[in-house]
Amino acid sequence: MIIYHYPQPIDLAAFRAAHSTNALYGLPLEVKFCRSCVISNQRPSSTTEFKNDGKTPKQAIYFDENIICDACRVAEQKAAINWNDREKELRELCDRHRRNDGSYDCLVPGSGGKDSFIQAHLLKYKYGMHPLTCTWAPHVYTDWGWKNHQAWIHAGFDNILFTPNGRVHRLITRLAVENLFHPFQPFILGQKNLAPKIAAQYNIPLIFYGENEAEYGNPKADMSSAKRSWDYFTSSSQDEIFLGGASLATLRELGLEKIDWEPYMPINPQQIEEKNIEVHYLGYYEKWHPQNAYYYAVEHGGFQCAPERTAGTYSTYNSIDDRIDDFHYHTTWIKFGIGRATYDAAQEVRSRDITREEGIALVRKYDGEFPQRWANEIFEYLSLPASHFPVASKAFEQPIFDRAYYDLLSDRFRSPHLWQFSDESGWQLRSRIFDEEHTRQEFSAASWQGNK
Q1: What letters, b where the CB count within 10 A reaches 16 and e where it falls short, cover 255-287?
Q2: Does the predicted TM-score (pTM) go above 0.90?
Q3: DSSP state of 388
Q4: Dihedral through CA 283, CA 184, CA 344, CA 361, nearest 10?
Q5: E strands, 234-334, where?
Q6: For labelling alongside 21, which of 32, 129, 160, 441 has CA 20 to 30 A away?
């Protein structure tokens, strides 16, 4: 029954070559870096996760003729928005749906991090709404993540915490790593699919998410609407659904049944229509600024940043509630050449919290750092011992996961157009923003003719 064989060393010929024309995932062959922030054109857009079978090409962030990314253009658009008018739109929306009969009138999904905190707090205390909050539990809570979740609740909110079956979640996460090299995918599935089902169950007419995905690289045209596309969370066909990159038929073969995968499933669009549920981005109405959200959550809810910087970056307050998150960003570095420092710095450059030069320096220092702090715990989490997984473990030639397994699997997901290998230096990215910037600075210095 072996479905997943132990990963073998890959052929390095394509990676030893001076150049490569082999680009995986449908990524652009020529690597470019945005001239405004630090993101590269290899960044994939957010997609419908439950359709991710690991074979469909990625849609990458768009760069215009001036080599400026869509996310930076969105930041420019935000500066021109009349936010007073947008606030009036939000008040009108709330006025249409506000309830005073003791029932909830809006739903805010989140972890209790800075973004979900400010959403719920503004809706309740500024706009007079009666929000219910809901949380899809992290794989493995950090201590400070759990404390922030509790602080969110004690700031005045009811909360539904949904924690999926631990063994099912571990299996789907292992599948996501094997098939997609995406350990965070099961959480994303729950995060996106849970809220609409709770809203339908409780007859809640409004769901509010935070910022639009276009603020980070999805097509800038998406910013024209306050509503989130139904594509993210609805489906009427089970044939198109893949969890952890595996079909439902494969999950059944691994010992699961419908009740096991039901929490991860998207809602039928007919239910959204019948219940007249609207799904909005609060960031359409309120100018979104992640660092301001952090300060707001600290002031109004006692939000705690992590006591240490996050592996692979310099920040201490973004996405800090799940221990597996470190590996999520390390795998994006392997697949797309984009690590967590790049994601953080790009956002902070657009928000004008740091300069592009500072962002490049931070990328050079932290991007691609191996997430050692919880590695052993995460490898144990990804292991499928026969005592707990009597059926599924038989499908893996090596059900126990360790660092050697991770390293071999990493190499399978490297794209030759991004990575090169040499016996002297090991693995190196072919194109790095700090190399490009260094070349530019040398050229500028060489052409300088002195003060005039």
Answers
A1: bbeeebbebbbbbbeeebeebebbbbbbbbbbe
A2: yes
A3: T
A4: -170
A5: 242-243, 246-247, 278-281
A6: 441
